[in-house]
């Protein structure tokens, strides 16, 4: 019996050495450890052994079985490691510097700037509104205190339609009246201040060149409540513009004339490029003219149904206008304004995100 | 407009002021200054020199050899000026002098020594005359530094005209000086004037026939004017302020205009007997003093001498009555005309003059008399022998009402948000001419005539006057006390943003902006013409320009053509406006549209079309959790494909159209590409109420999948077979998906995967088989059989 076990052991080790892959290892395992395998055969031989020796040989067979199992596991591990190593060796080292095809769409740069501003304004409690591109004389001019014969109303500046009393809006201010009327009741009934911005596309009859467009975007904003003051306006503009430019800006106000505000201002910010020292961007003045603003003219508030004839200053407010197209040019360093309406995908596809 | 600090100093004492800082304050308080120029700094050691002798240069046909008395000594000078001659006094730059960029040194010219230079006005920078050397008054003492005689040194700043549009009072130096006086808290000196010295009955007859267009006409006649050249000081000022000295009378009118902002006109006294101001009955041609023929229409206000037109009111005089060099008698016009009429006439004539630019700002009619008296003062100072042969005629039919505005400190505080003392308020209002009547902390302001034509009329205007002089830089800035109430994103904006994100991020499309009007050339290029629609005014029916687009595709199809070589596959979209003709009131029917165009050179049209359907379904699913239905329709536009043009609806709401492109148009855009168009009316989409999103609890019991491969007959649509199992309303049928579609020439088949599941128990195999049998029976009803 002893001899048989020894023989089987030798046979096993010999075969194990020959085994090089998982499949033949499994075949070897079955050869020895399955029910019809060599170990089972040894167990059968045990029955022929005298009883007093049975225990001893039984233990020998069992320990042999245990040894075999351990060997199999060890060998299996070795083969797997070897195979993995081989796989790794055979694997190509990939070239991540290869140009890739990126299924990437793009936003129009105006959308990107507009959204950024809308987010800022929403965070400051402003409703974001929208308005038609085709408006009437009342909304574009009369409700804004622009007198009947104001040059802005001339044919050479504004696109009138052949339909009765219709024109393409020449500024986003054309929405002021509708917005005052929309939010006025809540102001008067529950004291909810009017805070709204309204981005939109505007049209002016201009010859197009690198810095002039007849189709461009503005974003206008208004705030109306009791006791809104010039001091509030300056504070707000400074805070808002610091958000827009992502850093503290210095603002200054100059008198500026717009019929729908009184007083009206031109707001300058200290040049962000030279910090006020003077450079080519600010034409050496140290200041960049950025946005017109002012206290909403009493006539505009009256037209908007906010104040009565008897108390034209019951509510006061401010308004400001931002040139979205100009901000987009500043933000992205676009030198030719014609890029925006070019429809040229080579140009526009660059604007994948903010 | 150029402003001379010397001129301002005539009216305000600026001694001790930092001029540059003051100009900076002017920008912040009044109007934008575009630049500052220092004049005369580059002229040094130029003196009065007398030419004692003048001989021809032996080696030159134009040079002269001069001896010049420069005061301290006599200099030999070579000079090329044609007017150089013995006996005249001129500007002489001595050796070592500086004239512009030149430093004068002793030199030799064609063999003759030259020690110094006689200068022209241009060389000194005080005129643009380079025809000869300056000829100075004989009484001047040789050797006197020119800078002590004439105001060659000056500071000139340019004010942006656009920032003066609402300030008619700032179109002359006197008005600007008033601002400087307020800014420096110094008094404004009165304008030197002279009352009409004539004492008799003669007047220039003036008749205003149209007093809605002519508000005031002031006139007088002066004769025996012997001086024809204006004084050097005046010439220099005029030149520094951007005009050119011409002759005394022309210079005087320019000087008055630059000083007061009031345009005046000098007619040749011999050509005028009676002034009539009126509009013509019919059009005619008129020659203006610049020598051009102008077409005058009946809405142009004219000045006549009796029946003869002599000037276009407020714009330009006529050639026939123009002042010439030796005119010795003059009829002065100092008048006020209606602003819009002047602006429109000037625009119509294409003739915008310094005068018309001022009139269109709505000038103060009170200025006409002031200007006339200032004219009397100036001309009698310059030419004391002139004779005033009439008194001043003053026809003043149309007055502006006198305006008063009441304001108190409390209002100023509320509107400004800061505390400005009543003394400060009073001081500013006084300085600006508002003559405030103060009662404790309230004021009655009398708006001065020069601010009352349109600029100042109410309390907010007065606040501006106070604050701009106070200085916005001095404002303490504060946040509002208004409650902060969170803003809600409107559904409209939400949907726009979601669609843009979906199209950019999931479908890798490009957002574009296209114009609201058609480009006829670009459309013609692809065989299309703009569709009949609302037009921009001024574009006639014969032209196809200025037509607003009816659909975004009128912009997109040319855009695809232009980008056809950009990439083999791309998609573009825009949320923009189109005009669907007229609505019931006869006005343009503006629609907010989403336009999408897909283009591909690598996919076939069917694949691209099905992708587009998927895209629309995704939008509906994203925004509304709803299914979309499609209805084949006849094409609405010529570029739509007759077979694959469909109306897109969610529920009962039709939201837009989907189509491929007619081969005729497609072949013009791309030889080997295909295009699919989608157009969705954003407001119709917005009107679809979104279905509330409901969570579907997954069953705890196992689902059974069952695949069926079906043979399809030609013409059977998926929705036909879909109806078969939908009609059975099998509760356990959770989902049906397409595993595979086989689409060969003759055989079409589809493999579907049916998923069955119950929420409360496990389905039995028999139950599933029953459902499948029922479905197959329904399918065979429309001729669809299992694939063998």
Q: Output the structural class of chain B.
A: alpha+beta
Number of helices of chain A: 11
Task: Assign a percent range to the helix content of chain B.
Answer: 25-40%
Overall form of chain B? elongated
Number of domains of chain B: 6
According to CATH, what is the class of the largest domain in chain A?
A: Alpha Beta
Strand order of the largest sheet of chain A: 1-4-5-9-8-7-6
CATH topology-level name of the largest domain in chain A: BirA Bifunctional Protein, domain 2
CATH class designation of the largest domain in chain B: Alpha Beta
Strand content of chain A: 15-25%
Order of helices and strands of chain A: HHHHHEEHEHEEHEEEHEHH
Biggest sheet features of chain A: 7 strands, mixed
Q: Report the structural category of chain A.
A: alpha+beta
**CATH topology term of the largest domain in chain B:** BirA Bifunctional Protein, domain 2
Oligomer class: heterodimer
Topology summary:
The complex is a heterodimer of chains A (354) and B (788).
Chain A: H1 2-18, H2 22-33, H3 38-46, H4 51-90, H5 109-123, E1 127-128, E2 134-135, H6 137-140, E3 167-168, H7 176-190, E4 194-203, E5 215-225, H8 230-245, E6 251-255, E7 261-270, E8 287-296, H9 298-303, E9 316-323, H10 324-332, H11 345-348
Parallel strand pairs in A: 1-4
Antiparallel strand pairs in A: 2-3, 4-5, 5-9, 6-7, 7-8, 8-9
Chain B: E1 2-4, H1 5-9, H2 19-29, E2 33-39, E3 43-56, E4 64-69, E5 74-79, E6 89-99, E7 102-103, E8 107-109, E9 112-114, E10 117-119, H3 121-124, H4 146-149, E11 154-159, H5 173-184, E12 206-208, E13 214-223, H6 232-240, H7 248-260, E14 264-268, E15 275-278, E16 284-287, E17 293-296, E18 302-305, E19 308-312, E20 316-317, E21 330-337, H8 339-349, H9 354-359, H10 367-382, E22 387-388, E23 393-395, E24 404-408, H11 409-416, H12 422-431, E25 437-439, E26 442-446, H13 459-470, H14 491-506, E27 510-511, H15 520-525, H16 553-562, E28 569-582, E29 588-600, H17 605-624, E30 628-632, E31 640-650, E32 653-661, H18 663-669, E33 674-681, H19 682-687, E34 704-711, H20 718-728, E35 733-743, E36 748-756, H21 765-781, E37 785-786
Parallel strand pairs in B: 12-15, 27-28
Antiparallel strand pairs in B: 1-11, 2-11, 3-4, 3-6, 4-5, 6-7, 6-10, 8-9, 13-21, 13-22, 13-23, 14-21, 15-18, 16-17, 18-19, 19-20, 24-26, 25-26, 28-29, 29-33, 30-31, 31-32, 32-33, 34-36, 34-37, 35-36
Helix pairs in contact in B: 2-5, 6-7, 7-10, 12-13, 14-17, 20-21
């Amino acid at each position: 019996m002893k001899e048989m076990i020894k023989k089987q052991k030798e046979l096993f080790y010999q075969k194990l050495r020959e085994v090089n892959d998982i499949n033949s290892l499994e075949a070897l395992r079955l050869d020895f450890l399955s029910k019809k395998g060599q170990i089972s055969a040894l167990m059968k031989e045990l029955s022929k052994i005298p009883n007093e020796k049975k225990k001893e040989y039984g233990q020998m067979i069992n320990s042999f079985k245990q040894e075999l199992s351990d060997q199999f596991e060890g060998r299996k591990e070795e083969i797997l490691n070897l195979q993995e190593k081989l796989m790794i060796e055979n694997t190509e080292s990939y070239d991540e510097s290869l140009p890739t095809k990126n299924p990437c769409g793009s936003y129009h740069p105006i959308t990107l700037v507009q959204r950024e501003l809308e987010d800022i304004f929403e965070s400051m409690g402003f409703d974001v509104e929208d308005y038609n591109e085709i408006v009437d004389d009342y909304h574009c001019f009369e409700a804004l205190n622009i007198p009947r014969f104001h040059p802005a109303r001339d044919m050479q500046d504004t696109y009138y339609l052949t339909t009765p009393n219709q024109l393409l809006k020449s500024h986003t201010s054309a929405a002021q009246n509708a917005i005052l009327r929309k939010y006025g009741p809540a102001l008067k009934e529950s004291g909810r201040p009017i805070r709204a911005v309204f981005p939109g596309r505007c049209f002016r009859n201009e010859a197009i060149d690198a810095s002039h467009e007849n189709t461009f975007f503005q974003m206008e904003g208004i705030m109306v409540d009791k006791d809104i003051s010039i001091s509030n306006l300056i504070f707000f503009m400074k805070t808002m513009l610091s958000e827009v430019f992502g850093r503290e800006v210095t603002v200054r106000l100059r008198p500026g004339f717009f019929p729908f505000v009184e007083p009206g201002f031109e707001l300058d910010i200290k040049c962000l490029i030279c910090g006020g020292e003077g450079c080519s961007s600010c034409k050496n003045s140290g200041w960049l003219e950025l946005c017109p603003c002012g206290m909403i003219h009493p006539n505009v508030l009256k037209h908007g149904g906010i104040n009565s004839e008897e108390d034209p200053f019951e509510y006061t407010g401010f308004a400001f206008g931002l040139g979205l197209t100009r901000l987009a040019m500043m933000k992205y360093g676009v030198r030719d304004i014609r890029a925006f309406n070019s429809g040229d995908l080579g140009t526009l596809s660059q604007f994948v995100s903010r | 407009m150029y402003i001379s600090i010397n001129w301002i100093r005539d009216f305000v004492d600026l001694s001790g002021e930092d001029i540059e800082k003051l100009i900076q304050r002017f920008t912040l308080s009044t109007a934008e200054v575009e630049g500052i120029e220092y004049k005369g700094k580059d002229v040094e050691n130029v003196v009065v020199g007398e030419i004692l002798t003048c001989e021809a240069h032996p080696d030159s046909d134009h040079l002269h050899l001069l001896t010049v008395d420069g005061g301290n000594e006599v200099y030999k000078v070579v000079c090329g000026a044609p007017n150089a001659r013995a006996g005249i006094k001129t500007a002489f730059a001595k050796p070592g002098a500086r004239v512009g960029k030149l430093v004068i040194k002793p030199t030799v010219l064609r063999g003759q020594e030259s020690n110094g230079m006689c200068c022209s006005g241009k060389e000194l920078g005080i005129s643009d005359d380079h025809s000869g050397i300056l000829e100075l008054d004989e009484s001047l003492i040789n050797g006197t530094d020119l800078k002590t005689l004439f105001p060659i040194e000056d500071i000139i700043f340019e004010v942006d005209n656009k920032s003066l549009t609402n300030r008619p009072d700032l179109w002359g130096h006197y008005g600007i000086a008033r601002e400087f006086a307020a800014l420096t808290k110094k008094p404004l000196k009165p304008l030197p004037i002279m009352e009409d010295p004539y004492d008799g009955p003669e007047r220039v007859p003036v008749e205003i026939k149209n007093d809605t267009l002519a508000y005031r006409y002031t006139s007088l006649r002066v004769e025996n004017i012997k001086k024809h050249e204006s004084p050097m000081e005046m010439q220099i000022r005029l030149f520094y302020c951007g005009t050119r000295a011409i002759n005394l009378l022309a210079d005087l009118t320019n000087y008055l205009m630059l000083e007061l902002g009031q345009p005046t006109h000098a007619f040749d006294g011999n050509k005028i007997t009676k002034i009539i101001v009126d509009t013509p009955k019919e059009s005619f041609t008129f020659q203006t003093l610049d020598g051009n023929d102008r077409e005058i229409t009946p809405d142009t206000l004219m000045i006549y001498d009796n029946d003869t037109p002599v000037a276009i009111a407020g714009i330009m005089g006529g050639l026939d009555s123009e002042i010439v060099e030796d005119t010795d008698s003059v009829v002065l016009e100092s008048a006020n005309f209606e602003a819009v009429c002047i602006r429109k006439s000037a625009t119509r004539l294409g003739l915008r003059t310094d005068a018309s630019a001022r009139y269109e700002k709505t000038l103060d009619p009170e200025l006409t008399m002031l200007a006339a008296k200032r004219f009397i003062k100036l001309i009698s100072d310059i030419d004391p022998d002139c004779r005033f042969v009439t008194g001043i005629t003053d026809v003043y039919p149309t007055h502006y009402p006198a305006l008063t505005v009441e304001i108190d400190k409390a209002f100023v505080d509320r509107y400004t948000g800061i505390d400005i003392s009543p003394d400060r308020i009073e001081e500013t209002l006084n300085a600006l001419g508002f003559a405030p009547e103060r009662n404790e902390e309230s004021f009655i302001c009398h708006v001065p005539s020069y601010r009352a034509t349109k600029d100042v009329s109410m309390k907010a205007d007065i606040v501006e006057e106070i604050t701009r002089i106070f200085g916005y830089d001095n404002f303490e800035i504060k946040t509002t006390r208004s409650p902060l109430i969170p803003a809600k994103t409107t559904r409209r904006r939400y949907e726009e943003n979601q669609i843009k994100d979906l199209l950019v991020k999931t479908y890798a499309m490009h957002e574009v902006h296209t114009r609201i009007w058609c480009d006829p050339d670009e459309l013609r290029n692809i065989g299309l013409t703009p569709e009949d629609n609302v037009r921009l005014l001024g574009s006639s029916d014969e032209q196809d320009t200025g037509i607003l687009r009816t659909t975004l595709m009128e912009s997109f199809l040319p855009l695809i053509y232009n980008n056809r070589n950009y990439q083999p596959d791309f998609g573009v979209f825009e949320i923009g406006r189109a005009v669907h003709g007229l609505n019931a009131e006869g006005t343009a029917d503006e629609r907010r549209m989403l336009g999408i165009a897909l283009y591909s050179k690598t996919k076939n049209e069917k694949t691209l079309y099905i992708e587009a359907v998927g895209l629309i379904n995704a939008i509906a699913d994203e925004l509304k959790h709803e299914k979309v239905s499609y209805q084949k329709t006849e094409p609405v536009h010529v570029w739509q494909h007759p077979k694959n043009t469909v109306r897109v609806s969610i529920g009962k709401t039709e939201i837009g159209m989907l189509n491929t492109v007619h081969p005729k148009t497609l072949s013009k855009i791309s030889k080997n590409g295909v295009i699919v168009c989608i157009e969705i009316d954003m407001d119709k989409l917005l009107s679809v109420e979104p279905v509330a999103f409901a969570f579907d609890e997954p069953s705890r019991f196992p689902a059974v999948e069952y695949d069926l491969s079906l043979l399809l007959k030609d013409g059977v649509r998926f929705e036909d077979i879909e109806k078969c199992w939908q009609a059975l309303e099998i509760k356990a049928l959770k989902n049906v998906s397409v595993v595979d579609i086989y689409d060969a020439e003759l055989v079409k088949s589809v493999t579907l995967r049916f998923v069955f599941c119950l929420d409360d128990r496990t389905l039995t195999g028999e139950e599933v088989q029953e459902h499948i049998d029922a479905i197959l029976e329904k399918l065979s009803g429309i001729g669809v059989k299992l694939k063998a």
